[in-house]
Amino acid sequence: MRPARLKRALKQGVMCGLVVCGLVAGCGPFSRTHREPGTGHAVATSAPSPSDGEARAEISIRNGRVSPPPGWLEVRRGQTVSITVTSDVADELHVHGYDRRAPLRPGEPVTVRFAADLTGVFEVETHGGKLVLTQLAVR
Length: 139
Ligand SMILES: [Cu+2]
Fold this sequence. Notes:
Number of domains: 1
Distance between the termini: 21 Å
Bound molecules: copper (II) ion
Oligomer: single chain
CATH class: Mainly Beta
CATH topology: Immunoglobulin-like
Mean pLDDT: 78
């Protein structure tokens, strides 16, 4: 990806995240719900698998609820990330920063897989339901 295009994608991602955070209570990296210890929110969605080094998250959406509850998916830079989402309604999956999008169809698992080569914290969300699915934290 050329730098200009990457910059534009990042800007879109940031703007999109801000809009969503204005609409959905408790979303975003700065919200209190994700920082309170012991609430069950501040946990990795899935632990990195030691066997193949791939960080996996499996997330389902039913009746507008995200399961497991949105937390953090912590990965190392360069690690492969695999996020599988199953939604009960049609929607669009979006991984901010990396700008990965995928259409979601009711009941059909969709997996996005990519190398985590950008560091930072990125929201994984749906656009139709405006749900934050997890925060991808790449260190
Ligand atoms: Cu988005």
